[in-house]
């Protein structure tokens, strides 16, 4: 297979493998004891204070991004609205996670997952608007926000349909981490901008690993748990996304030489649909 053919089919192939893998895995549920976080310390009467307060970076990054996008004239309107929705969802992530960590249980975790899913959906919409000529009737943002909300609804044990199944929620995140970099590669976005996205992916992957290693990290540091650091690195990932879109304003959405024009029509001020 030549490189151009690989480049063209890589995003769809990766999506197919993600779906195939999750279908083969069968229903996935929240692990037993997930809500028993390693750091149970009180601060000013606040339970699990470090896991709660470590959500403040989400609030800060979301505010910086929301204000920074502003009118966002260097971005096409659908991309601009998607990025506004992304940073608003990042701010809501701070509130949802704060609420959940004050009293972790199966009910409150839905409000922790929902803004995360909406942030993923909004960011995926921004990339699809830029890198794909395909567009659903309602546009990518409403479509993916609805799909993101549905993915969280399916994680609830209260539903009779696929009760507590995490696979749609995980599929959304894996698409963002794996398929989106391939879409940007196919569209010919310059390496100077794609590398910031890959750095954001790396920060989020590290955040998920820290989440799994919650107690060992707490034992190793004696001060900070893996889950606390997860919040910090996930917020760092969101900040790197902002840097990537900020770079568009400074340098324009440069396209790799020889990559051909992407599906959407690049302009020096953004992408025209």
From TrEMBL:
Chain ranges passing through the membrane: 49-69, 81-102, 108-128, 140-162, 168-185, 197-218, 224-242
Keyword field contains Transmembrane helix: yes
Keyword Flavoprotein applies: no
Origin superkingdom: Bacteria
Keywords noted in UniProt: Membrane, Transmembrane, Transmembrane helix
Designated name of the protein: Alkaline phytoceramidase
């Amino acid at each position: 297979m030549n490189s151009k053919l690989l480049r063209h089919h890589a995003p769809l192939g990766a999506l197919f493998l993600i779906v195939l893998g999750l279908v083969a895995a069968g229903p996935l549920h929240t692990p037993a004891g997930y809500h028993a976080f390693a750091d149970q310390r009180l601060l000013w009467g606040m339970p699990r204070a470090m896991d709660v307060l470590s959500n403040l970076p989400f609030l800060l990054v979301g505010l910086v991004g929301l204000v920074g996008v502003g009118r966002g004239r260097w971005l096409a309107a659908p991309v601009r609205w998607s990025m506004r929705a992304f940073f608003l969802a990042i701010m809501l992530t701070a509130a949802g996670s704060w609420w959940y960590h004050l009293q972790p249980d199966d009910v409150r975790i839905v409000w922790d997952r929902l803004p995360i899913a909406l942030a993923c959906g909004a960011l995926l919409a921004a990339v699809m608007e830029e890198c794909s000529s395909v567009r659903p009737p309602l546009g990518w943002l409403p479509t993916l926000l609805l799909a993101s909300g549905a993915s969280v609804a399916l994680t609830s044990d209260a539903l009779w349909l696929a009760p507590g199944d995490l696979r749609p929620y995980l599929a959304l995140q894996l698409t963002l981490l794996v398929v989106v970099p391939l879409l940007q590669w196919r569209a010919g976005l310059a390496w100077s901008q794609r590398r910031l996205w890959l750095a954001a992916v790396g920060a989020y992957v590290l955040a998920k690993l820290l989440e799994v290693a919650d107690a060992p990290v707490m034992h190793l540091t004696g001060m900070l748990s893996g889950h606390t650091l997860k919040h910090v690195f996930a917020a760092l990932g969101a900040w790197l996304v902002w840097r990537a879109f900020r770079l568009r304003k400074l340098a324009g959405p440069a396209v790799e030489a020889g990559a051909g024009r992407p599906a959407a029509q690049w302009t020096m001020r953004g992408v025209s649909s």
